[in-house]
Fold this protein.
Amino acid sequence: MIERIGNCRIVEEIGSGGMAVIYKAVQESLNRTVAVKALKASVAQDSQFAIRFEREALSVSSLQHENIIHIYDFHKVGGSLFIVMEFVEGIDLYDLLEKCPILPAEVAAIIGLQVARGLDYAHYRGIIHRDIKPANIMIGKHGGVKLMDFGIARDQAFGDLTETGTGLGTPSYMSPEQILGDKLDFRSDMFSLGIVLYQMVCGRKPFIEDDQKSVMHKIRLEKFPSPRRLNPEIPRELERILSRCMEKRKEDRFKSTQDLVLALERFISKRVEMNYHARLVLFLRDQKVITEEEADAQLHPAVAGGYKTPTLPGPLGWAGMKRLASLQAGILGAMAIILAFVHASQIGAPSVQAAPVVAAPKPPGFLKVLVEPWADVYVDGKLIDTTPFSRALSIPEGEHKVALKNPFFIEETRKIVIKRGATETLKIALAKK
């Protein structure tokens, strides 16, 4: 193993592919951890590979986006080529899918959204990636997603290294036009991202080679299996998004990568009521990709302990349920107006024996609970909810026993007196066991 490249001290080898080896290193001038990508000696002699490797450094170094790996430096040492780039602690999507073959819909959409944002910026700069696949998508411990390996990207600033009729990329993730060797634009990357989205929520790729037909034949000519047939839990809105990405005719896909970004944002906003990076961190923690301590270092304690994946029945999600509640309130209001009108129209009519009026019960009191870091809230022995929640709990008037339970902290119990119409606040910081 090499020991030094420029001002970078090599620490260890962390990955190897067909063309390159990746090392973890320390850039001593800035005392930061970096990754060094070295073109393998076996392919460095091929001028096409060497040119492509250098172009990757030149193209990506001009891209400054949070969802694209940053390039710091490029070195030629003898006949060897090296790229010094950002080091991301985390897991690539390929390994994550090995660990968890089917991702929750909102997690898959958040990953897809961040990749789409990076692609939208690259496309705006005239760069087509051409090799979107799980192994080239890195998910950091902080919840950020980075697009990697622009080794076969086409940059409009340079001539194309491939000729018509030749294809570069990974067959299972190629677009139909890429297989045919046609001139590519941003919609080819969109097709590949649709395949990745499909794989994340279905647990398999949409086009799989068999004894009769190759994967390339299926991509060009056959319809993929319905996502909801493989996984009925996939929301129809997300199914429509990934299906549109994978239209055979590129003219039928989203009109721009930004349109895809907006579609994914609309889908996620109805289902995730927290920071999207935080949702990914919690998922990585739950899959034991990162430790509790690593998750806590990234998140506010209330977020780390209190998030629950929405489990409402049906496809409405939280936002849809809120709209339904608003509609119901409007209907009730209209009924009240109609009843008032009918009552007023009967003034002066012959008196009718009125039914006894039963006074409506007065509203109960309310309890607001603030707990650090988080707790399951029990009222009179019954589990009510898990903090954090912004609403005040509706509790009958009188004395109640409130217990706050967290398996990592000492349980706290309080007696509270609730008065009608009044709001009591219970604010407690739990002590560690």
Remarks:
- The chain has a mean pLDDT of 84.
- The chain has three domains: 4-86, 90-300, 365-429.
